[in-house]
Each structure stands twice: as C-alpha cells, then as structure tokens.
Design a protein that fits this description.
Layout (H helix, E strand, L loop, with lengths): L4 E6 L1 H9 L4 H5 L4 H12 L4 H6 L22 E2 L4 H9 L17 E2 L11 E3 L1 H12 L3 H6 L3 H6 L16 H21 L3 E6 L1
Antiparallel strand pairs: 1-2, 1-5, 3-4, 4-5
C-alpha cells in the first residue's frame, strides 16, 4: 500500500459545504488544480437527479456553486509520507483498529460522499472533533509512544512500509516515526489554534 495521508485545517462552514456537495473537496485538497475539480463536477453532472436532490431544482436550471473561500490557514497540507501506518500503530497498538479519537488516521470523521481522491474518499472532522484528537494526542508523551515501538510485533502485523526491523544505523524507523509525530502535532496545533476542523485523505 503506497498511500500517503495528508491533512490540514478547514473551518466547519467549508466542511458542511463539501459534505453537501462532494466535488468541492477538490477545491480544498487541490486548490491549484482547477481541472480536477471540473472533471469531478462533470462526473457528478452525469448522475441524473443529483443536483435536484442537493439543491431542490432541475439539472437544466443548475448554476455552478460558488467557489470555496479559503482562509490563510487552509490549503497548507501536512504530508506524513510513509509514516502514517506506523503512527497509527503507536497511537492505537493496532494495524487498522483502535478507539476514537486516536484512530483518526485510518477511521472516523465523516466521509465526503463516495468521491475517490486517491485511496477512497476524504474524511473530515469538525473543529470540535479535531480538538478532541489534539487533546488525546497531547495526553501521550513522546516517551510513552516510544515504548510502544515494537519492531517484531509491527512486522507481524504488516505495518506499512515494513522497515521496522532494519538496523537503526541503516534505517532509523523510530526516528522517522517521531519526525512524523512532530508534523502531526504541528498541523493539529495549527488547526485547533484557529478553531478549524481537519481533512484527512490518502493520496
């Protein structure tokens, strides 16, 4: 699995808009690529009755929705590279399970329709849900998370990308995960500091 998750803060107003109109997710996660949004909009238009269900009017009278208004904090992605699965393991001690809110890298939140943005739909967390994630992660010290690093168990659980048993001098897997943890904490701190929610997606 070569998926790499990204995430960044987004206000609840824009979360509500993309949940009601999923093609708008591309204006959040690919604001510099209008073509991908247009393609998603055209694909949605091929679904008879979609716009009527969403907007209560016939497709023939449909007008293009207003673009999302992005704040300075939006569109600043935090890329966890290939550390995401290992971080999920440190946070939950599972390969794909765990309890909310610390399982947020692989589960939870609200799926943005069935629009595939790489490896399935994007998921969004409200500002309140994002604060819960931030607080739960804040309750775990670096030392506590380091003690959960178990190369043998992670290899048995097939935690991607399978580098955990490599000698530290060749591949500092734990250091790699702790660097990803710093990135994760940074984006959560930025989001909660601005009272934003969170978008998480695999690309």
């Amino acid at each position: 699995n070569g998926a790499e998750p990204e995430g960044y803060g987004v206000p609840d107003l824009n979360i509500a808009r993309v949940l009601a109109d999923p093609p708008l997710i591309w204006q959040l996660i690919a604001p510099d690529d209008p073509d991908v949004y247009e393609q998603a909009r055209m694909q949605a238009a091929r679904n008879p009755g979609l716009f009527q269900r969403l907007f209560g009017r016939a497709q023939s009278t449909f007008e293009m929705p207003a673009p999302l208004q992005l704040s300075p904090e939006e569109g600043i992605a935090a890329d966890l590279d290939k550390a995401w699965h290992g971080l999920h393991y440190l946070l939950t001690q599972t390969s794909s399970g765990g309890k909310p809110p610390l399982n947020f890298l692989v589960a939870g939140g609200h799926e943005v329709g069935d629009l595939d943005v790489g490896y399935g739909p994007a998921r969004v967390f409200t500002a309140e849900e994002t604060l819960s994630i931030h607080d739960a992660l804040g309750g775990l010290s670096d030392e506590a998370l380091r003690t959960r690093f178990d190369p043998a168990a992670m290899s048995r659980a097939e935690i991607y990308p399978g580098i955990w048993s490599e000698p530290p001098e060749e591949d500092d897997a734990l250091g790699y995960l702790m660097g990803g943890l710093d990135t994760l904490r940074g984006v959560l701190a930025t989001a909660t500091g601005a009272h934003l929610g969170l978008v998480v997606y695999l690309s």
